[in-house]
Amino acid sequence: MAPGSRCLLLLLLLLGDLGVPVLGDPDPLEDVVIDRYYIPKICLREAQMGDFIRYHYNGTFKDGKKFDSSYDRGATVAGVVGVGRLITGMDRGLQGMCVNERRHLIVPPHLGYGSIGVAGLIPPDATLYFDVVMLDIWNKNDKLQITTLSKPERCNRTVENSDFVRYHYNGTLLDGTPFDSSYSKGSTYDTYVGTGWLIKGMDQGLLGMCAGEKRSIIIPPFLAYGEKGYGTVIPPQASLVFSVLLVDFHNPKDGVFLEHLEVPESCKRRAVTGDFVRYHYNGTLMDGTLFDSSYSRNQTYNTYIGKGYIIPGMDQGLQGVCVGEHRRVVIPPHLAYGENGAGDKIPGSAVLIFDVHVIDFHNPADPVEIETVFRPEGCNVTTRNRDFVRYHYNCSLLDGTQLFSSHDYEKPQEVTLGANKVIEGLNSGLLDMCAGERRVLIVPPHLGHGESGARGVPGSAVLRFEVELISLEEGVPEGYLFIWHGEPPASLYEQMDLNKDGGIPADEFSTFIKTQVAEGKGRLMPSSDPEKVIADMFQNQDRNQDGKITPDELKLKSDEDQEKIHEEL
């Protein structure tokens, strides 16, 4: 308040106390005339004796001539009502007013400045007319007023001193005049609670809030900016009203918080550091805002855990998961993206919540996991590499997603083991099986389809096979198409040249080989197409590709490979 205004108020107080008798008006008023020409619908409080108030006014004479105005000075009037610090008429006329109420007051001389008046400003015996609007009411005994506007159903934790909070707010004076808003800045207000970084009233008003809670906090001036106010937007002795939405909060000492939403009954193994995990997730802020989702990309997130490839909080949060588990991982910012955030979706100092569904995991050192479901009695002959086998299978992901099944076709799957015709893990899982045996195989990706996956198979996927061996045929060593069970005939070419014309065409060659097989003297490489095997054998021996084999062309494989264990044409 300007020095001139203070002098005027002191003069007004002195004149108000003189009690000068009323002179002049033919029908003098005995008391203040009050016209409550605007009363707000909601009146939470009325000014009482001893309350501290702030108000604006225009002061005029009966003819409308203005003698004073707080508007002209650009500052509200602040003071205590009902204790004699104002002229008696104003003291009486302001009592009972609500915030935002407007009144016309007619103050007779004996309740104004009496027969003395105010030199050069208010003549003696003047009736005064005031147009007043009440802006603020508070009392030194007031406390913080907190109203919960909305609160989440789930609230596992509330704000405590030393917590770091992120909140949105609209700040107004008690009459509704806005002075600040985080929404207009497009970012939350981020600060510690209870460490003196906030005004006392806000420090207290945020305590006990849940993330997502909305509150109205009314702060009396002595818990706000007091007698000095703040800049040009908050007057001295102003009550403040904050509408607050708590977005999130954490404590610098917080670790990762885990909530096990669904854990499979059967959990044979839990993920550890060094495991490679495939999982789906929804990532949200604490107020529920979605910032990322693997589901939207229709692709799992695949990574090693415990090796620093992901944020520290997720590295910790995935430890110990089971295949098929649903887990909620709450990560404080110092274990996530810190004060800087990430991109335009994750604000600085944001708490992150990941709802995770673990699809599968493995370790690069994992072998094929084999579970024998059924093995026939008297199992003496088992599969080896190079054997030809027929088997049925169902292939799925570990989450149960069906990929392929031999039952969708007319006959079982056929393959020569060890010939690189199936993935390594399946080949390993089919070894040492009896006909009729059933197994469950868990094949890690490095023994399956690897990081790239295959048609219908995601990259880095662990596969589950249910296999049943239908039949097996003893194979031949790698590189062989036919082996003798004993020694080959001494005069092999002569016996093979059935018409003795000095050349062996394809039909003679085929007839001879089939005869050796039928008589048990040798066996072909097992195949679903023996004719093709014989044709390949003929082509190998017909070295000049003239359609017949000559004595110079016919050679045993032992002659070529110098291998004495088995011999082949």
Shape: rod-shaped
Number of helices: 12
Task: Return residue spans where pLDDT drops below 50 for at least 5 consecutive residues.
Answer: 1-26, 563-568
Distance between the termini: 117 Å
Instruction: Look at the helices and sheets and give the structural class.
Output: alpha+beta
| Cα gyration radius (Å) | 47 Å
CATH topology of the largest domain: Chitinase A, domain 3
Provide the CATH top-level class of the largest domain.
Answer: Alpha Beta
Largest sheet, if any? 6 strands, antiparallel
Helix content: 10-25%
* Tally of discrete structural domains: 5
Report the average pLDDT across residues: 91
Total strand count, please? 28
Beta-strand percentage range: 25-35%
CATH architecture label name of the largest domain: Roll
EC number: 5.2.1.8
Enzyme class: isomerase
Pfam family, one: FKBP_C
Biased composition (Basic and acidic residues): 543-569
Describe what you observe in this structure.
By secondary structure, the chain is α+β, with helices and mostly antiparallel strands. The chain has five domains: 33-138, Roll (Chitinase A, domain 3); 145-250, Chitinase A, domain 3, CATH 3.10.50; 257-358, Chitinase A, domain 3 (Roll), CATH 3.10.50; 369-473, Chitinase A, domain 3 (Roll), CATH 3.10.50.40; 482-568, Recoverin, domain 1 (Orthogonal Bundle), CATH 1.10.238.10. Helices cover 16% and strands 30% of the residues. It contains twelve helices and 28 strands. It has helices spanning 3-18, 70-73, 88-94, 182-185, 200-205, 294-297, 312-317, 424-430, 492-496, 506-518, 530-541, 557-561; strands at 33-38, 52-60, 66-69, 77-80, 102-107, 128-138, 145-150, 164-173, 178-181, 189-192, 214-219, 240-250, 257-262, 276-285, 290-293, 301-304, 326-331, 352-362, 369-374, 388-397, 402-405, 413-416, 438-443, 463-473, 482-484, 504-505, 522-524, 548-549. The strands form six sheets. Strands 1, 2, 3, 4, 5 and 6 form a six-stranded antiparallel sheet that branches. Strands 7, 8, 9, 10, 11 and 12 form a six-stranded antiparallel sheet that branches. The model is unreliable at 1-26 and 563-568 (pLDDT under 50). Keywords: Calcium, Endoplasmic reticulum, Glycoprotein, Isomerase, Metal-binding, Repeat, Rotamase, Signal. GO terms for molecular function: calcium ion binding; peptidyl-prolyl cis-trans isomerase activity. PPIases accelerate the folding of proteins during protein synthesis.
